[in-house]
């Protein structure tokens, strides 16, 4: 038996918060659109629709039809190693979590899994893989991965908003909106901010 994993990320460009990588694994003959007819790139869906699809993903995972996970690289890791390496680490963590069965031919492992990734993303070299430009739009399994990554990252940013209410993370999720930039200028950077992303906006201000 063979499996396919769709992989996409959410949160590459924000000024604050982690980057998230979603990975969804299905049997090779699984029909994603039949099971999730509303699936499309997460950016084309309303928050409510993304939440509905995510809840269905959980249901399908509980019945064993699919498997999925989301892994994060935090702002400190992004500042230390750069966004590309931070994304790569989260990809590796996610696919290895789903395929940790080297000794069982009937279970997912690097030997019987094919990975589909959006854009220029890359999985670890031991996996058969294909990168697809605009894969989050063209390939339903990658679209599903983008949805689970987006939903989980947004939820995390809403929780962070309770710790740092002055920044409005619940509204912009860390992206560089006018509201967010104004808050940075007023309050400085917090521990969630990616200082390497903010250096042109705010230099020399204290970290809270």
Tell me what you see in this structure.
This protein has helices at 32-35, 47-62, 75-81, 83-98, 135-138, 140-163, 169-172, 178-187, 195-198; strands at residues 3-10, 19-27, 67-73, 113-118, 128-132. With 208 residues, it is α/β, with parallel strands linked by helices. It has a single domain, classed as Nucleotidyltransferase, domain 5 (2-Layer Sandwich). It has a 5-stranded mixed β-sheet. Strand 1 (3-10) and strand 2 form a beta hairpin. Helix 2 packs across helix 6 and helix 3 (75-81) crosses helix 4. It starts with a strand and ends in a 10-residue tail after the last helix. GO terms for molecular function: metal ion binding; RNA binding; RNA-DNA hybrid ribonuclease activity. This is Ribonuclease.
Task: Produce a short descriptive summary.
This protein is of the alpha/beta class and 208 residues long. The protein has helices spanning 32-35, 47-62, 75-81, 83-98, 135-138, 140-163, 169-172, 178-187, 195-198, and strands at residues 3-10, 19-27, 67-73, 113-118, 128-132.
